[in-house]
Write a structure and sequence with these properties.
Elements (H helix, E strand, L loop, with lengths): L2 E7 L3 H9 L3 E12 L2 E11 L3
Antiparallel strand pairs: 1-3, 2-3
């Protein structure tokens, strides 16, 4: 596997912090993409590449 990516809701800051510690980086976002708890939230797209 060369690359792994994931999507996480922006308000899930704990998960984003854990993913960053694991080596994932934020690659982009889908603005106001998910309806969560009565409001729209961004979806953060994160990825990690295999190191050589």
């Amino acid at each position: 596997m060369r690359r792994v990516h994931l999507q996480v809701i922006e308000s899930n800051t704990g998960a984003i912090r854990v993913y960053e510690k694991a080596g994932f980086v934020i690659e982009g976002r889908q603005r106001q993409h998910a309806w969560v708890r009565g409001k729209y939230e961004d979806i953060v797209i994160m990825g990690i590449l295999r190191s050589k």
